[in-house]
Amino acid sequence: MTRSRLTRLLELRRLLPLVAAVLFVLALRVPVWRITLTAPQYVDALVVELYARPEIGGDWQEVRGLNKYVGFYYPDPVYAEPNYEPHEKAIDVPEWVLGPVVFLGMGAASAVVSLLPSRRLSRGLSALFAGSIAIFGAMGAIIQYRLYQAGHSLDPDAPLNGVEGFTPPLLGSYEVANISGTAWFGPGGYMLVGAVVLLGIAVVFRNSTATIVDLPALVRDGWVRGRNRIPRRGSDDGRHERTRDHGTDPVVETTDESTTGGEPIDESTPAGEPTDEPTVSDRSRPSPEGDPR
Questions:
Q1: Comparing C-alpha atoms, which of 197, 199, 161 is closest to residue 177?
Q2: What does the radius of gyration of the chain's CA atoms come to, in whole angstroms?
């Protein structure tokens, strides 16, 4: 491998998809989803861990003993043998066997896109990021539907057959009978989120040749630009104060002597009212008898 090609692989738009590919593959080996349960029968919380492949870990045996009281059973993957014995009344979840296919496929696609020529890399990154959002969004919707299906298909012959149907959330807390549960990401789930975030960052740099060596400078420049966009309270107040001081036009008092001939105006008589003193025009006009006034 030549040095120029190695330098190209250090570009953020190529390196980040490679790291995402590794995360997609590693997520297969650790739990993707985790459920923590508490009940009066147990002092310590019970944890059930689910993998992308048909496998359940943690305290799944103890939790299965609790679930049987309300008629809630682990799903049956149908086309694969899980590490537990599915109940005959469990719901079928055949798509569970596709988990490894999706994870490995996303890892392979990320690696291939990182090696694309520069003229095709931008479009490939955009398609990869959009595809990852669509695929994992669809997987989340399917899992949530299966949880709804399992919570509303309780065994009527269970000891606590009076429990109403419920829907465990994909992420969040819930309660059923005297059992409280919280569902959240496992280590593999965090890896998936991190991989998708890395793909999104790669899309941002899809037209840039910046490498991992340039990352500190990029972060520093971004911090400076962000800080400069935030107005400082003291300087902002001063700027507004100066605007108020200089934005008001001063009042200039002027006297228009051209209208008064330089003489003061007699303000004792309001303008527009008649006066008893004769005006110049009155003195020049002859009286009716012909005598001047």
A1: 161
A2: 41
Beta bridge partners of 180: 38, 175
Q: 106 CB contacts (<8 Å, ≥6 apart)?
A: 21, 24, 132, 135, 195
The values of phi and psi at residue 57, to 5°, are -125, -175
Q: Is residue 163 a contact partner of residue 70, using CB atoms and an 8 Å limit?
A: yes
DSSP count for the chain of H helices, then E strands? 9, 5
Model pLDDT, residue 252: 45
Place of tokens 């269970």: 158
Residue 96, helix vs strand vs coil = helix
Strands 172-176 and 56-58: unpaired
Helix (H) or strand (E) holding 138: helix 118-151
Other Cβ atoms less than 10 A from the Cβ of 247: the count is 8
* Nearest partner of 71 among 178, 171, 159, judged by Cα: 159
Residues 142-151 have a mean pLDDT of 96
DSSP three-state, residue 30: coil
pTM: 0.74
> Contact, 125 vs 203, CB < 8 A?
yes
CA 253 to CA 83: how far, in whole Å?
A: 96
Q: Contact, 124 vs 206, CB < 8 A?
A: no
pLDDT digits (tens, 9 = 90+) for 253-266: 444 444 444 444 44
Q: pLDDT tens across 87-113, in order?
A: 999 999 999 999 999 999 999 999 999
Structure tokens of 290?
């012909």
* Token digits of residue 51: 């993998």
DSSP secondary structure code for residue 270 in this structure: -
Q: Which two tokens stand for residue 84?
A: 């537990």
* pLDDT tens-digit map of 46-92: 999 999 999 999 999 999 988 888 899 999 999 999 999 999 999 99
Q: Are 183 and 47 in contact (CB under 8 A)?
A: no
